[in-house]
Specification:
- The structure is a single chain.
- The protein is α/β, with parallel strands linked by helices.
- It folds into two domains: about 240 residues, Glucose Oxidase, domain 1; about 50 residues, no CATH class.
- The protein contains six helices and 13 strands.
- Strand 8, helix 4 and strand 9 form a beta-alpha-beta unit.
């Protein structure tokens, strides 16, 4: 019931924003992966028992542990309620990063950057921070062409499939420049990389094809720079970025230059201090290309927990056909 009320409320908001009418039902796209769940480990309810998945759950790549679901029962004379208790990492599955997720050192703070103690946590984000028009960048065709060199599979070896910063298989500054006229206050920049196909294909973080030893597509550093340049020139501020990868950046930009995360997570370092939000591990982004261009609005159903740095989210796009 709560999910239905959320969709109805979101739909009403979009119709008001677009000047539409109630009989003009939009094309809805669920951009969210399901979250696999596991029973708790015997003797330690805070750890998952990976040998006891619920239903068809398969583990997924994550910076935290897999999700635990404990089921208890509340009995009545005619039946009982199932009641679940979740132990769930904030940055697990399809989730949102708040601006408070990254804490910059003083030397990486930029002019106009939000001070650390002023960056909104999950409970401080308003409803208007979670809704906005979608600007789509789709490089899935380029990504698939590169994967075709290896039978459609990613390889951690950049000599086999190359998603490095200097390749054309990441989101480049030219890709950002191509949508500059569509960028405005409060839009969400959505990056369809075609990478979610690999999401459930392994759970070993070091070997998973989705992570691919951080040889995966995403925003190149130059693309981040170009986006900030356009914001500055136009005097605007976008809501944030959505991507179907582990962290919006290209893998090379994310991992940095050594095994100590030196010079890593470039988009996080620069973008979150600007107030951008990130939705990572998104799904079904290719379906947005089937909608009427420029008609889609993003709604992020993020949890509102105190001091939250982000949280698993139900993300929906509402579009015209």
């Amino acid at each position: 019931m709560l999910q239905k009320l959320f969709v109805i409320a979101a739909l009403s908001l979009v119709l008001v924003m677009s000047g539409g009418h109630a009989n003009a039902a939009p094309y809805m796209v669920d951009l969210t992966h399901p979250i696999p769940t596991f029973k708790p480990l015997a003797g330690d309810p805070m750890k998952p028992d990976m040998a006891q998945p619920w239903l068809d759950s398969r583990p997924i790549p994550t910076f935290g542990q897999q999700t635990i679901l404990s089921i208890s029962q509340f009995p009545t004379n005619w039946g009982h309620f199932d009641l679940g208790l979740l132990v769930l990492a904030e940055h697990h599955g399809t989730h949102m990063d708040t601006p408070a997720h990254y804490i910059n050192k003083p030397e990486t703070m930029e002019k106009g950057g939000i001070p650390i103690d002023k960056r909104p946590t999950a409970d401080k984000l308003g409803a208007d921070d979670l809704v906005g028009r979608i600007v789509l960048i789709d490089i899935s065709g380029r990504v698939q062409s590169e994967l075709a060199k290896n039978g459609g599979r990613p390889s951690p070896d950049t000599k086999v499939t190359d998603f490095g910063e200097n390749s054309m298989n990441v989101v480049t500054a030219d890709d950002i420049a191509a949508v500059a006229d569509q960028l405005d206050n409060d839009v969400w920049l959505v990056l369809n990389l075609g990478w979610s196909d690999f999401y459930f294909q392994g759970a070993d973080f070091a070997k998973d094809p989705y992570i691919n030893a951080f040889n995966h597509p995403g925003l190149a550093r130059a693309a981040v720079d170009k986006l900030i340049e356009i914001e500055t020139q136009k005097g605007i501020r976008i809501q944030g970025i959505v991507a179907d990868n582990i962290g919006v950046e290209s893998g090379q930009s994310a991992v940095g230059i050594d095994d100590k995360w030196t010079d890593s997570w470039y988009a996080h370092r620069r973008g979150l201090q600007r107030g951008w939000k990130y939705v990572e591990n998104a799904a079904n982004l290719g379906q947005l290309a089937m909608a009427k261009p420029g008609s889609c609005t993003l709604v992020v159903g993020a949890p509102k927990h105190v001091r939250g740095t982000g949280g698993p989210s139900r993300v929906i796009a509402l579009c015209d056909k």
